[in-house]
């Protein structure tokens, strides 16, 4: 059977018009073509980010920038050719193409990177959030660079040669690919050493290598031998600071969603997005950092005994967390949910969700405004000490305009498209700032409700967001960047404390003292210990040095 110059075998029937699907292609040439397709169509974000790391002010810099194209192609070829085996190659290439198409879309559209935590966040996203990300552009990406080439791969016939010959060809091709790659790197070592050392985050953008590496990392973590649930909260007890209170204690912890500190009026933002909170007797801490840049990391991290540096998902989810300690000590706990779930932190405490609630004044098609968290809240209050967690939908994007009612549309025009890059920056910021105005309204309503309860309870409120958000700064949108390279917009979050005068007095807590720490650096690392200290729960896992309130409480 004759071959053309591309190594494709033509039909042996001279009377039959040759068509694409009558031809056979060698596994080697298939790997070459697929890897070339990836480099040319799937790696816009990688090349843009990589080229921005170098000043094109010399011939060497220009050569380095150009060399990234063949280098990425050779490395991708090496990777794909390893899996060029009968039965495996077609499903493997289709998996890469479909996964690569989705990755390319989100990287090109929102400027995000696909690392392990972003994959974890995606896997833990519910169907309602997923639907909010659908767009014509996503469908186009999937069809043009995903479905279409996958269909062609299904139709094409692969010519497999003698096993020994195939093996020799594979060994030779991979050797040549690695050798040339090494030659490119060594010949431009000054540029590549700086690139690999100072711009490690760019590697996450290489497609499909980045998302495959992230998937392997997540799978390795997930498939580790499961740890049994450690009941480390056993032995937690209430101290005299709560037992001697004149009234039952009621603490409301509001977990915000995607609220960045920089957009809060009380943080110094040019817009007064928090006019109601600024009239309340709150304490705002303006140097508060998140544990992660996604809910999947920050939420379990902030409720665990682990610091950000110590945090591992499997460990945090295999031991009791903050709510377990509070409940074990004898304080009633309730979690009220208006988001996509508590990521395991509320699994062992009473929980309420409003996703299917018949409350048309706040809910429509599974999307509820945060005011629903206050619905019938008074009926949940009893004569016991209580901690209630309200998990907001907050400022979850990209559909910011769906997070607040029409009455909260203070800033116009707003972006009503989940393709944020198609809106003007003003429209994106306006839509986002309206979510903060609505959070201001929601928190003010909550404080007013607590004020009404202070006759029968000593009441307090803590508000803290899980992570921040990028709104187009440096062409970045949403969140989820690797923490080491994430902009401050994604990591600096608001932290607000409010309490009744009786709470301050009975707890021996000095507001003037606490006010002196408003400019101190705190983080999610402090939440576990601060809430335990605030309600005086004694356990060996409590660390006073991480308790924001400890130095301002009279322990006599």
Task: Note down, in words, how this protein is organized.
The protein has helices at 27-41, 44-52, 59-81, 89-110, 116-123, 127-131, 136-155, 163-187, 189-198, 209-222, 240-243, 295-302, 313-316, 322-328, 425-453, 488-491, 501-507, 511-515, 527-534; strands spanning 8-9, 24-26, 157-159, 237-238, 249-256, 283-285, 288-289, 332-337, 351-353, 363-364, 367-368, 386-391, 458-465, 470-471, 477-478, 495-499, 522-523, 537-538. The termini are far apart. A 7-stranded mixed sheet has the order 6-16-13-5-12-8-9, sandwiched between helices. It is elongated, with a radius of gyration of 28 Å. Helix 1 (27-41) crosses helix 3 (59-81), helix 4 (89-110) packs antiparallel against helix 7 and helix 8 crosses helix 9. The longest helix has 29 residues, at 425-453. It is built from 19 helices and 18 strands. The model is unreliable at 14-18 (pLDDT under 50). It has 556 residues and is α/β, with parallel strands linked by helices. A hairpin with a 2-residue loop joins strand 10 and strand 11.
């Amino acid at each position: 059977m004759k071959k053309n110059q591309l190594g494709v075998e033509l039909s042996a029937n001279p009377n039959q018009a040759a068509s694409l699907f009558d031809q056979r292609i060698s596994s080697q040439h298939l790997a070459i073509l697929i890897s070339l397709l990836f480099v040319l169509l799937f790696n816009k974000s990688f090349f843009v980010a990589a080229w921005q790391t170098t000043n094109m002010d010399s011939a060497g810099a220009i050569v380095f920038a150009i060399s990234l194209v063949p280098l990425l192609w050779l490395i991708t070829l090496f990777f794909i050719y390893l899996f060029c085996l009968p039965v495996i190659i077609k499903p493997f290439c289709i998996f890469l193409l479909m996964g690569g198409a989705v990755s390319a879309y989100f990287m090109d559209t929102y400027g995000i990177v696909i690392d392990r935590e972003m994959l974890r966040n995606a896997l833990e996203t519910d169907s309602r959030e997923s639907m909010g990300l659908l767009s014509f552009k996503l469908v186009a990406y999937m069809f043009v660079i995903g479905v279409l080439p996958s269909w062609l791969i299904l139709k094409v016939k692969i010519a497999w040669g003698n096993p020994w010959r195939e093996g020799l060809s594979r060994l030779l091709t991979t050797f040549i690919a690695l050798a040339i790659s090494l030659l490119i790197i060594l010949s431009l070592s000054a540029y590549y050493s700086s690139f690999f050392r100072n711009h490690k985050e760019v590697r996450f953008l290489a497609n499909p290598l980045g998302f495959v590496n992230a998937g392997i990392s997540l799978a390795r973590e997930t498939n580790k031998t499961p740890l049994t649930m450690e009941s480390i909260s056993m032995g937690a007890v209430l101290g005299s600071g709560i037992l001697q209170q004149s009234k039952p204690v009621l603490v409301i912890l509001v977990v915000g969603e995607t609220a960045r500190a920089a957009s809060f009026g009380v943080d110094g933002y040019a817009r007064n997005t928090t006019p109601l909170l600024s009239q309340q007797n709150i304490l705002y801490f303006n140097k508060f950092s998140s544990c992660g840049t996604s809910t999947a990391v920050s939420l379990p991290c902030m409720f665990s005994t682990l610091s950000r540096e110590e945090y591992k998902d499997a460990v945090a989810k295999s031991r009791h967390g903050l709510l377990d300690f509070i409940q074990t000590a004898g304080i009633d706990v309730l979690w009220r949910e208006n988001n996509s779930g508590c990521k395991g932190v509320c699994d062992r405490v009473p929980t309420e969700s409003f996703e299917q609630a018949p409350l048309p004044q706040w809910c429509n098609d599974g999307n509820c405004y945060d005011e629903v968290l206050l619905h019938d809240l008074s009926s949940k209050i009893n004569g016991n000490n209580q901690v209630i967690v309200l998990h907001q939908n907050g400022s979850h994007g990209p559909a910011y305009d769906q997070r607040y009612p029409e009455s909260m549309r203070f800033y116009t025009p707003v972006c009503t498209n989940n393709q944020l890059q198609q809106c003007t920056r003003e429209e994106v910021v306006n839509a986002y700032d309206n979510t903060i105005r609505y959070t201001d309204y929601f928190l003010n309503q909550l404080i007013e409700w607590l004020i009404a309860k202070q006759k029968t309870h000593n009441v307090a409120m803590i508000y803290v967001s899980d992570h921040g958000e990028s709104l187009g700064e440096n062409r970045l949108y949403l969140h989820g960047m690797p923490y080491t390279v994430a902009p401050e917009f994604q990591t600096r979050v608001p932290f607000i404390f409010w309490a009744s005068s009786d709470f301050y007095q009975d707890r021996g807590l000095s507001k003037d003292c606490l006010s002196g720490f408003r400019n101190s650096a705190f983080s999610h690392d402090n939440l576990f210990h601060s809430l335990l200290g605030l309600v005086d729960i004694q356990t060996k896992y409590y660390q006073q040095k991480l308790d924001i309130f400890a130095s301002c409480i009279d322990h006599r």
